[in-house]
Structure formats: C-alpha cells, structure tokens
Amino acid sequence: MWNSGNPEGLDTGKVEGHSPGLYMNYASTSPRQSAGLTQALIHYLEQNQHMNAGRNFEGLEDGRIQFRARRALARFFGAPGTSQVIFTSGITLSLNMVLCGLLKPGDHVLTTHVEHHAVSRPLSRLQRQGIIEVDLLPCARDGSFDPALIRTHVRSNTRLLVMTHGSNVLGTILPVSESVAQAKALGLFTLVDTAQTAGSLVITLDEHTDVLAFTGHKGLRALQGTGGFVLSKEAARQIEPWISGGTGSVSESFEQPQFLPDKFESGTPNTLGILSLGVAVEELLGQDLAHIREQELQVTARFLEGVKHIRGLKVHGTGKAELSTPVVSVSSPAHDSGVLARKLYEEYGILTRCGLHCAPLAHQCAGTFPAGTLRFSFGPETSCQDIDRALYALDSLLRS
Ligand SMILES: Cc1ncc(COP(=O)(O)O)c(C=O)c1O
Fold first, then answer.
1. Which residue in 33, 226, 285, 321 has its CB near the most CB atoms, within 10 A?
2. Within 13 Å and on the Cβ side, how many CA atoms surround 103?
3. Which CATH number fits domain 37-285: 2.60.120.10, 3.30.70.660, 1.10.238.10, 3.40.640.10?
4. Mutate to test the pocket of ligand 1, among 139, 196, 224, 324 (most ligand atoms within 8 A of CB)
5. Residue-wise pLDDT tens digits, 320-377
6. Which residue, by CA, sits nearest to atom 13 of ligand 1?
7. Ligand 1 centroid to residue 195 C-alpha, Å
8. d(CA 79, ligand 1 centre) in Å
9. Cβ–Cβ contacts within 10 Å for residue 94, how many?
10. Tens-place pLDDT, residues 244-257
C-alpha cells in the first residue's frame, strides 16, 4: 500500500525543466503502438508501390492489407463477416456517420449523461436543427447508470439508444450489455462507443447491438486517424451513407453502392492506417485481454488506495478499480486542476490531462463543471512504481 512521504529508494522523478518522463494520459491516446507496427509500416513503405485497393490490378496488395485488417477486427468484435467492418478516420467520424445516416425528422434519442462530445455534439446539432429530440438519461455522481431508466424514458418515437462503454472522465464502466438488451427489447436501434474500453474489456456485436464504434489509437494501439465501426447487416440496411463518392465499384451509377463495405467507404482509403489496425488487432487477438485488464486493475487499485490518503484531494468516479477503466479524475478545492497538471509536468515530468476532457456532461454529473478535474489514466506500460511516483508528486504539490 502506498503511504505519503518518499518510500525508500523511490525515484520521485523530480525534474529540472520540462521532461515528458511519465505518461499518464492513456485515455487520450496511447503513446506506444503495438510492438510489430513500426516494422510492418517500414516494410510497406519500402516494398509497396502505393496502389489503390479495388481501383487497379496493382492494388491487390493494398486490398490484401484491408482484408487482413477487416478479418482481424471482425474476429475481435465478433462481427459475422469481414464486410461488416467499416474503416473511418476514427470514432468521431464513425459516430457522426451512424447518427446522421440513421436519424430522421421526428426521431427521439436516448443517451447518457456521461457522453463524450463525439456523441453529444452531433446529437445537439441535430436537435438544434429541429430534426430530433434527445433525452439525457441521468447517471449518478460517480457516473454509474441504471439500465432500467431506458424503459421509463422510452417514447413511441424513440429510435435509438447511444451510449459509451466507459466514461473518459470518471472511468466508470457503464452496463452496456444490460442496456442494449433492454433497448432492443423495446425495439430501439443500439449504438455503442467503445473508445475507452476496446483493447482491455471484451465487447462484441451481439444480437442486441446494432453498431459498435471504435477508435484505433487508444487501447487498440494502432495509428492515430484510424478507426471505424462494425455493424449487423440489418443495421447497415437502416443507415444511409452520410458520405458518398468513389468506391471503385458500380461506377456507372450516381448512387452510392448499397453493398458493404462500399456503402460506407468512399474515397482513397488510409492504407497505412488500416495496416496499423490490422497488425495491432492481430497482436491483441494473440493476447489474453483478461491479462491486460488484470494489470490495469492492479495499477488503478494502487492509485485509488493512495489518493485516499492525500489530504485535500477529492476522487471522482466509483473509487473502485473493478468498476472502472484505468482512469481516475481528482480535484482539490484549494488548487486549480490546470495549475496542478502544469506543475506535475514541469516539476515531476508527469503528463496528465486537466479540464473538461471534451465531456462537459460527465462533469455536470460529477459536480465538477465548469472547473473540470485533473485526470490520470494508465496503460499497459504503467508500473506500480510509476503509480507511487505520481502519488508522491501529487501529495507534495498539495502540501506545498
Ligand atoms: C468516450 C470517447 N468517445 C469518443 C472519443 C473520440 O475519439 P477520437 O478522437 O479517436 O475520434 C473519445 C476520445 O477521447 C472518447 O474518450
């Protein structure tokens, strides 16, 4: 257990000037990509002629890269077929494509009070345009969510439940399986944001889930600017293509092809990014997610235990590692979170993230709006010693 004061032999990491030393901002992006990625990218750049998949014979290798990535992602997310994997530039685009392609005038949407702007902003825009109505289902102060609320808020025109699997502010894991099951029983379309959980918690396209949206650069450990969504065939029929253009198929028609994946993939693809997704997800398929989760639980539990003993610090979220992703938000009435984050970085080389984290709703829910919080988030490289170093630094700053 961690206690305040410098444990014997601990490198406190106190630094002179800037040093990126200790990265604790994994909820934002993963600082390291999967192990085999650099080599695969170099190989592609050295060997490949940069042909366009599906556009000419020479593009066969790029087509193979896409197929390999689709196959890995289909297995990873439990999609029945490779064509049910759609590539985008990231989960923000995925969510916009599904929301804007699905929702029609008069539709009512249910969502939660801890969503990221990738969900809340497109919904808010559609609402302001008078196209849809939105109900924010309340979450408790710790971000936990009761799926029974879906039944009590559903209306005759409710079309969709869209929710995140994990709060990027509070770390709280939301009960997606129960929620999508409830929503499906009421005839709703279901869309899940896996940005904070894919790569450490198992989440699959089951019979209650219409679309799982994912991003490549966090837990999946692919390149930034990658992501996509997996969807059921029935869901694909219901979503209009929000972006249309060249697909290299059915070129005689001015209509977007209706078959997958072309219906949702227009323009020249990001082959390097897709290669990175394929390599990273194949690597994850060869690992035990339970093992990744176990390591996350260990460091998160150690941090949560330690911050309890730091005077003047409030911990937000459930305070329980097993109910949380490796994300912990803290605040202090006596210290601005931005100042703390800056001092942690400048004096101890510890990189965290402060403010509202593109999720003001979650802060409203936790009572930390508009000041925001100081957020620590951990990943596979975070060790118990790193946690102790962060606790020591935080404790020292709060005492000063
Ligand atoms: C829950 C959640 N959804 C969506 C996003 C947006 O991800 P991206 O920037 O990769 O599109 C984030 C990013 O932090 C997130 O935490």
1. 226
2. 31
3. 3.40.640.10
4. 196
5. 999 999 999 999 999 999 999 999 999 999 999 999 999 999 999 999 999 999 999 9
6. 28
7. 5
8. 22
9. 29
10. 999 999 999 999 99
Quote the CA–CA distance of 338 and 354 in Å, as a whole number: 6
Map tokens 């935080």 to a residue: 394
Return phi, psi of residue 74, to 5°: -60, -45
CA distances from 286 to 11, 67, 291 (A): 34, 18, 12
The CATH number corresponding to 22-34+288-399 among 3.90.1150.10, 3.40.640.10, 3.90.25.10, 3.10.150.10 equals 3.90.1150.10
What whole-number distance in Å separates Cα of residue 90 and Cα of residue 187? 28
DSSP annotation string for 332-356: BTTB-HHHHHHHHHHHH-EE-EEE-
Global pTM reads 0.94
* CB 215 less than 6 A from any atom of ligand 1: yes
Rounded distance from Cα 358 to ligand 1 centre (Å): 9
List the helix and strand counts (H, then E) for the chain: 12, 13
Residue 88 in contact with ligand 1 by CB distance below 6 A? no
Can you tell me the distance from the alpha carbon of 338 to that of 223, in angstroms, rounded to the nearest whole number? Answer: 28
